[in-house]
Amino acid sequence: MKIKNIVKLSVLCFAFGNLSAQNPWPKANNTAQPWTRWWWMGSAVDEKGLDKQLTTLSKAGFGGVEIVPIYGAKGFENQYLKYLSPEWMKMLQFTTDKAKSLKMGVDMAVGTGWPIGGPQVSENDAATKMIVQTYEIQPNEKFSEKIVLKDEKQKNLKTIQLDIVTAYNDKNETVILTDKINADGSLNWKPTSGKWIIYAVFVGKTLQKVKRAAPGGDGYTLDHFSPDATKDYLKTFDKAFGNSNYGIRSFFNDSYEVYNADWTADFKEEFKKRRGYDLAPYIKYLVEDNESDIAGRIKSDYRETMSELILHNFTENFTNWAHSKNSKNTNQAHGSPGNLLDLYAAVDIPESETFGSTKFDIEGLRRNVEDINTKEVPDINMLKFASSAANITGKPLISNESFTWLTEHFKTSWSQVKPEAEQIFLSGINHIFYHGTTYTPADVQFPGWLFYASTNFVPENSLWPNLKGLNSYIERTQSVLQSGKSDNEILMYWPIYDQWANPKGKDMAFKIHNIEKWLHPTVFYENLHKLGKSGYSLDMISDKMISEAQLENQNIQVSKNGGSYKVLIVPQLNYFPESTLKNILNLAQNGASVIFQNEPENVPGNFEVEKRRNELQSLWTKIPFQQDGNIKSAIFGKGKIVLSSDVEKALEYLKIEREKLTDTGLKFIRRKFDGGKYYYIVNHTSREINQNIPLNFIGKQVALMNPENGEFGLAETQNSSVKVQLKSGESLIIKASETLDNSISKWKYIEKTDAPIVLNQPWQLTFKEGGPELPKSKTLDKLQPWTNFTEDASTQSFSGTGVYSTSFKLKKNKADDFVLKFDKLYESAKVIINGQDAGIVWSLPYEINVGKYLKKGKNTIQIEVSNLMANRIRYMDQNKIQWRNYHEINFVNIDYKPFDASNSNVQPSGLDGEIQLIPIHYSK
């Protein structure tokens, strides 16, 4: 008997060992799961509410939270906690302890609301701007006016100072008058002749305060260009945190939204140190919209200086501070007047942002124009700034603030979220943060506390029961995208000096909200778009990164842990630093391949222009180009340099292979690991793709992995192609490996389907949970949404879960499996067959395999459908039931006007059309 038991145990151990070996999915930790921004309204949190919500989030598949305190709900003022007070820190400690017990992580914003700032920001450290006043001196006229600041808003500030005073005459002669102004503002200078205009530059303050601040977080926004301001600001956190990081994984800083901050107290000194000349004689070219060449050059130098100051004085100091706490830092660089690539690269976790809704061609995907912001559409190439910086410098995690204002309030389904998440993944981002979840006290009723610009990932959302479907999909996908390294083969130089040399305006912010101005019109963007569509994988690179790059096995590499690239592309440009050309030629000398789209002829900036331009041209003439058809090419040292206006032709010339799978319309991103590569492939076309697709790397064995349900199996391969079957809206992961694993079963390809069984018999409809009240049960002659029953008012206002039930007989059938196919589903469903949980249907196409749950003879099926929150909110607004009652911004719609759902249409809810049971046969 004992011997038999030992044998059984051995067999069991062997079986479990095989299960482990068979599974090609990477082991996932909590960073693979989605995280969510967690707004603490008024910081009115307590242990009971924190425990409840963290536990609920964990069960739904969240890996972590990002705490951002904001304004509070009215009526709860006595529960507000002051930011960073001992009581607040106690709640933070409880949060991180509870999260740790749930194997979740906790990040935290370094401030409340946004942008960074607060009560610790003194007037001296506050965001700073230049205030320019002009004066005229007529010939033979005594100038009696005082050069003093006239701005009434600045009058009471103690830090205002006169920084630069420069006079210009009609011959454009210049006199610096800064040291000729007396204490009372009188001018101690008189011109000998001619008309003069005086430009006086004062150091002023923007007076901007933190937006949406929490109690204890109100105050001025920070001067990001001052190292002292940054260090002073972080001292408040040093005091609150002491020697502990309180369990914070990463400290977070939101996007740069500091308006009119275009100066700092020591800017003119920093400018001279960094650019090599005094700005004072040229100040009029900076402050006016003069279309001249010199104006563009002065502004280029000014913008480059601003970029360096925010990089060195804020971003790098922020990173060093987080490391002193044994934590990481996360930073959104976009919106700032700096080189985004360098700013993203200077932190541990670069974070991008998506705002608005993308138009996808997926069959059946809802995108009602009245429910979206048509002015802003997420752009995959904007997201690539963050992923490029991370890939090049070897940062393993790239995060994204995701789904901000995806649709109008309460109208976002998980099926609409999925393709937006896929586009984020395709950009190279692998650590999604939802935007977001609002903390709600345990005893607050529906709809709980809500944030005004969010897709509501809150437990009160009627779609919550099926959120695990979306979260599991993201977890599986991110487990792959966080494995190994990025496998992009191309670097493309970002010609930022073409932007900086624009003679219009003054400071230049690279925002996600105005890419139609600074990104879309460029040849750089045109190349990004075309090459991505053609099947090339690329990252963007900055001048600074090029200066740090080296050659490793004929490939360009900036960081030991970063990506390795076959070619560098310099797109068509007007301004190119001679130092960058010199660095590129050094790379070519050592074996790099480089493509220029045009001959660089001009240098940026205003320092020793002729000397530097001559050096640029001298370097260029050293390249021994030979005409080769429509292309000029040169062997340069160990490398190759190609000159061609057609970048794709140049890539073909250099034998850089594209992934031809994009010819089918499929999109992909590729990762490499020891001994193989992952391909993440998405079908955003309107058609099914059922064919062999070519891959540049096949290896010895190819496994297919379904990120929606976790299934996997060995693929059919032929030459250098893989057979895939992807319906519109589906995705797939391909694992191509040099290692053989014979324990993995074959992938189940559908060879044919039999005539569908239409479940058109009567159905019972009951209501499981939701409100404001449960509608009465109904017997349906045919499937239809419960909102069709307009005579029953409760069906029009109900948000929650309705259960459609029926039974049917199944004759003996030789099908290998059955697919349950929904015609129309509003919005997601849990399927139960013969009492067994068969899974969640939440994304297009609305299908699920159910064969293993069916039996010969009578079968029962229950479909638990969860709908949107919209109908219940409509009911509450029509009946004047108070649910939005917040300080500051008290709930606005997608156009930032007061939100009111009273006149909105009832959103269809439940099932509609046919439900089919389709017998399928797999190829043998």
Automatic annotation (TrEMBL):
The keyword Hydrolase applies. Keywords: Hydrolase, Signal. It comes from the Bacteria. Residues 1-21 form the signal peptide. This is Glycosyl hydrolase. Transmembrane segments: none annotated. Residues 803-885 form the Beta-mannosidase-like galactose-binding domain. GO terms for molecular function: hydrolase activity.
